[in-house]
Amino acid sequence: MLSLKELTTYFQEIGADDVKHSSKTYLGHAIGVYNDLKKWGWDEGMARIGLFHSIYGTEYFQGFTLPLERRADIREKIGETAEQIAYLNCALARDHFDEEIKKTSGPFQIHDRFIDQIVDVTDQHFHDLCFLHLCDWIEQVGRAEAWDYRRTAYRNLAIHLGGLALDKYDEAFRNAPEQVWFEEYQWPESSLAKMRRDEESLETR
After folding, report:
1. φ, ψ at 108 (rounded to 5°)
2. CATH for the 4-203 domain, from 1.10.1660, 3.40.50, 3.30.160, 1.10.3210
3. CA distance 118 to 68
4. What is the pLDDT of residue 16?
5. How far is CA 11 from the centre of its chain?
6. Cα(196)–Cα(19) distance, rounded to whole angstroms?
7. Spatial contact of 29 and 21, defined as CB atoms under 8 Å apart
8. Are 94 and 150 in contact (CB under 8 A)?
9. What is the C-alpha to C-alpha distance for residues 89 and 104, in angstroms, rounded to an integer?
């Protein structure tokens, strides 16, 4: 198993370390998700998914995208299962995913935006994907102050998972302001303004 230092060095080698992301760098956010997954009970091997959770870009985040032709590189670094979960998090179309999490049981599917097809996902992979997706958001939502982005969907996701995940959601949103932005698939205007200020601050450091 590669060391954490070797994995973070890889981000530097591919030019992904200093990309702006939610008032942090892309690498800073990725390490945050990795650390949170460990705190949430994932073992070292699975928690490393957090480092690569958006490595191919997501439907919203396109600040850095590793070409899909490089998937074998990531499999070699973190293992086939971990890479598959990271890929699913990058590939999923969020509106379709938000409907799937309303199900009480499988079979589960995602709309893979890379190939524009509905694909089957095992129950375990879907569970891990849900856990990762929620952890990713909780790591950044307070910093980004984007409380109203997909607010209903994230609540549904926490309820779908229950247990620790629901506790972590409730903890993160305990002091969140009342919802005022209801176009939930658009980034809230107030958060866009904050994002621009944060980017300007990073550029002047």
Report:
1. -110, 155
2. 1.10.3210
3. 18
4. 74
5. 17
6. 14
7. yes
8. yes
9. 20
Sequence ranges of the domains in the chain? 4-203
Report the candidate in 131, 177, 175, 178 with the shortest Cα–Cα distance to residue 154: 131
Judge whether 27 and 18 are in contact, CB under 8 Å: yes
pLDDT, tens only, 165-184: 999 999 999 999 999 999 99
Select from 59, 55, 91 the least CA-distant residue to 72.
55
Q: Following DSSP, what letter does each residue of 26-89 receive, concatenated?
A: HHHHHHHHHHHHHHTT--HHHHGGGGGTTTT--SS--S----GGGHHHHHHHH-HHHHHHHHHH
pTM: 0.90
Please write down the long-range contacts of 195-204, taking CB distance under 8 Å and 24 or more positions apart. 195/22, 195/23, 195/144, 198/20, 198/22, 198/23, 199/20, 202/20, 202/23, 202/25
